Amino acid sequence: MTAGGPQDERPAAPAAAAASSPDPGRPAAVEFAGVSKVYGAGTPREFVAIKDVSFAIPDLAGRGEFCSFLGPSGCGKSTVLRLVAGLGPQHPPTSGTVRVLGHEVVGPGADRGMVFQDYTSFDNRTVLDNVVFGLECRGVSRQQREAEGRDWIERVGLDPARDAEKYPHELSGGMRQRVAIARTLILRPRVILMDEPFGALDPATRLDMQDLLVRLWREVQATVLFVTHSVEEAVYLGDRVFLMDTTPGRIAEEIRLPTPAAPAREAQSEPWFNDQVTRIHQAIERIEAAAEPIPEP
Ligand SMILES: Nc1ncnc2c1ncn2[C@@H]1O[C@H](COP(=O)(O)OP(=O)(O)OP(=O)(O)O)[C@@H](O)[C@H]1O
Ligand SMILES: [Mg+2]
């Protein structure tokens, strides 16, 4: 990896961010050490999806980091996320090590939760039954899981009285994504993996969902790995942006950002926000200009 060092051009960040510097004795929330993934290795269809990817996201006490991944289609963003999730066929890596909270990833685990773009819900379950699915699997009593489920339905901005008994086909895309977020966060994962979760939403709903996510993220204090194609979304949400490049996929640059202090609509019209967006577009142009074919192993 050829990541640039963190850059210190942050405007005043909220106190919560200042209070949480990495503890050197604490294992990283997520760590990639020389990770490569070759699909179809040894066959004529062999393809190097990511090569020698290394990064570490510290496990900040009392506040997880929000990391966005930006990069062209096919650069390996979903591959990186699914390796963290321990989901095949991306897992296991062809070489290198993926660690979560100090432990090598050997498969999916309760410490990680994933939200996908395509509103993954069980069609035959109501909103409430979708939200509490994980608690059911953990053997939590019906009474307790329903109370927690209704609480989470409300926390993601749905109305428990009106929406709890609805089925996914009766919901809008934004509502379905709220259900997916509630279903993941109710399990209190330390690491939340989100693969273009708002990619299919209209711009206004997307801004509402960004605000919701920032609010919930502060509450649950988890580390978030968030894949997006939107530079604006990455700048608004991210403490840090990993810019990826393709063929083979790799981290090209790592950029530190200010923590959002204002709602999305407000923050995204402020001058510092536009400066950061421009800075990332310039970094993307730099990466594209420097791209040279790298010989495969
Ligand atoms: N199971 C697979 N078998 C073979 N090749 C794969 C497999 N999964 C992904 N790839 C290839 O690996 C590369 C990285 O894929 P990945 O899905 O991680 O990209 P991405 O950055 O998430 O792209 P997008 O932005 O389009 O979602 C792509 O070229 C893809 O075609
Ligand atoms: Mg993808």
Overview of the structural elements:
- This protein has helices at 15-18, 77-85, 127-131, 133-137, 142-155, 160-163, 173-185, 203-220, 231-237, 264-267, 271-290; strands spanning 30-39, 47-57, 66-70, 95-100, 103-104, 112-115, 191-195, 223-227, 240-245, 250-256.
- It is an alpha/beta fold and 297 residues long.
- It has a domain at 15-111 and 189-290: P-loop containing nucleotide triphosphate hydrolases (Rossmann fold, 3-Layer(aba) Sandwich), CATH 3.40.50.300.
- The strands form two sheets. It has a six-stranded mixed β-sheet with strand order 6-7-8-3-9-10, sandwiched between helices. A four-stranded antiparallel β-sheet has the order 2-1-4-5, covered by helices on one side.
- Strand 4 and strand 5 form a beta hairpin.
- The structure holds adenosine-5'-triphosphate and magnesium ion.
- Magnesium ion binds at residues 77-78, 195.
Entry keywords:
binds adenosine-5'-triphosphate, 4-stranded antiparallel sheet, 6-stranded mixed sheet, globular, alpha/beta, 11 helices, binds magnesium ion, single chain, 297 residues, Rossmann fold
